[in-house]
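Narrative summary of target 7.
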Amino acid sequence: MRTEQVAEQVRLLLFCLQDGPLGGRKAMKCVGLNHRPTFLYDYLQPAIQAGFVEMTQPDSPKSPTQKYRLTAKGKAILTAEHQGGVE
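Modeled conformation, tokenized:
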């Protein structure tokens, strides 16, 4: 079974979130970025749009306590990668 293609940036973000939710700043640090717009447009937004990542406070997207966590779909991608299911 072929699993969904995942961009390298999104894959990196998923690995960063595998141990639990992270705030934006910590997630940026984990993927090795200092430039917030690059993080938002190349990492976070594609991951959210693909359904791999969700906000812990979807009603307050700009909250200073906002964190991001894996969805079941995001966890499934990591599991498939760990088992070598993604090409």
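Strands lie at 22-23, 53-55, 67-70.
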